[in-house]
FeMo cofactor biosynthesis protein NifB
Amino acid sequence: MNAVVGRGKYAEAAVDAGKMVQTAAEHKGCRTSSNIGQASCGSRVGQGDLPTEIWERVKNHPCYSEEAHHHYARMHVAVAPACNIQCNYCNRKYDCANESRPGVASEKLTPEQAVKKVLAVAATLPQMTVLGIAGPGDPLANPEKTFKTFELVAKAAPDIKLCLSTNGLSLPDYIDLIAKSKIDHVTITINTIDPEIGAKIYPWIFFDHRRHTGIDAARILTNRQLQGLEMLSERGILCKVNSVMIPHINDHHLVEVNKAVKSRGAFLHNIMPLISAPEYGTVFGLNGQRGPTAQELSALQDACEGEINMMRHCRQCRADAVGLLGEDRSAEFTTDKVMKMDVEYDLDVRQAYRDRVEDERAAKGKANNEELAKLAGETSEISLLVAVATKGSGLINEHFGHAKEFQIYELSAFGTKFVGHRRVDVYCQGGYGEQDRLSTIIRGINDCHAVFVAKIGGGPKGNLIKAGIEPVDQYAHEFIEKSAIAWFRSYLDQVKSGEIQHVKRGDASIRQGALNSAA
């Protein structure tokens, strides 16, 4: 489908800002490669070729910058319960503390409760730089509560970035108010640009005072989404597009979605895996629709990356998420607890924290580049994946047995590239390892050549080696990329000397030589 939308006429400043956003989009947004001289937002080096104004808006935004998510936190406030569309992958249940997925929240807040919670979290967690409203319904289906919350937060905490996440149906109607409210980052979920595919994803929408179904509903939604994206881009508002990858429904089609959103000024594209466990009660979950494998998701992201850079560090957050991406500290900030807190919001303390973080990032970038320079002139075509256990800060600082997820990096003669994360069940339970969980973890990272950890016990270490995955603990509490590059150089040296034989992972074959003999 080719949706046609018109361009409005905006003030000169807005046009200039829009051109700047488009320039950033043409540079593929937030590059994740650490190659020297190729840095952009979220890189290991720094600003790179991003315009200064754009860099300042993304450098400490954990969703718009892959590198920043190691250091900075976000929070969502659940002030928007109503929704104007129905998705077959969504079930907006409340009070589900053990679920981590969009549309879930334990508490619904008023705008006044929300701002108190924001101040309490920001005073406790100086790394919290971003407030988002992402539901549990759609923020623009709850415009009074949404914009009142943003108004109160902007006055009380002017250093916090404001974000909005929407399905886009009502978006064109609120462009002026979004700009007026100083909401500088908007995420739109766009799963298709083909109404026939959309009819398989959306049972209905509520638009223009009535319910629409089928292809008609999907056509209206798609046109409104693309129109809203283009209008935001013209205003200089940074836009991230989320797309849910649904195998055999929109998976191949998302390449076309990627091109369409890039052409309309999207800054970043986030293709997320469908969450379809039956216990979540969604239509797709109950009818047996499977989600993609990690390898399928990565392949699709790779196929789209030539058009616009891909967000690969998304954790598909709850509507009340608090903390770094990948962690949830919302239980520490329930309404009852927050209302009893004596909050002291100190802008100087928060700025001092950010200054320290930026110093650390500069030191990390320098160390990574020094290590990367040692690969200069390397012509090997070998590329491989490694898994990393980390708590954040860009460090290898998690025990293997305590890891809830592993971050996956691709290593090659060009350096490191973050390609995603794999959630796993925690291996250590009360001081003892669960053998069944270990087998599941190994299957989850069986396409990786190594796993970097701060510490690992003898039992899992031996099992990993037998599976052809090298456990690496000699870089504990050191920078991830610097350590990975150092290990990769050593790996190439061993391959060249014949000490080990490089084989592709993810099949029945494993590396021979030194690794097997170590078992």
User: Anything to note?
Assistant: The two ends are 56 Å apart (CA to CA). Confidence is low (pLDDT under 50) at residues 1-15, 27-45, 507-519.
